[in-house]
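#lab-general

N.A. 3:47 PM
ok so I finally got the sequence cleaned up, no stray characters, all 225 residues accounted for. can someone with queue access submit it? mine expired

B.Y. 3:52 PM
send it over

N.A. 3:53 PM
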Amino acid sequence: METIQTNEQELIKAKINALKVAGELIPGIKIIQRTLPVENLFICKLGLKKFGLTEKFFSHLPNYEYRRIIFDPKDPNTCLLERTSAIGSDLSTKELYLRYNQHQENQEVELITVHHFLPDSNGKTQYSFTQILPLGLQSWAISKIKRIAQEVTFRKKNQKKFAQLTERNKEVLSHICRCLKAKEIAEKLCIGANTVNSHKKRIKEILETNETSDLILYGFAFDLI
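B.Y. 4:20 PM
back already:
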């Protein structure tokens, strides 16, 4: 056991030393953390500068402050693009995020990768390597990405409610989101207007809202429009 822990420590130390030596050649902000238990081990100079930290302050940064200042995967302006797991004995995982970020007076979009590695005997990874890479985009693209991130968050939050809708409920909802009246929806779906109104009532009950604006949010988030 001591030999395994020594090997892990040497590996992490080697990674940190490599980043200290050649970190400026690797784009973006680089961070290494121990996750079991949580411990901040390394952040590059670019990260210290951007977040206004010192190495000592970063090393003692509580996890809730880390999420507030540096990265929180559950932030409304952050969306998970992909999660991959290694095959075989290596139980490491990688996550890819897209984040809209308002940093002081600047708006930016960042691509964030989090690599969880070195699993323990129970298969839980003990360390993470996070890389935050800013993307140079035009202002119109940034606003669209912000909207996408918010839609993804809305979708995750309301997935269970949406799953309770029937296929016909979803068809009616898609037309509601296009601002069609009950008579117009009835003609398109070849059903009666009263039936449409019954569906609308049931949809609002399931989604727990009486606001058309909320229904439109569902339409965008679940690709009904």
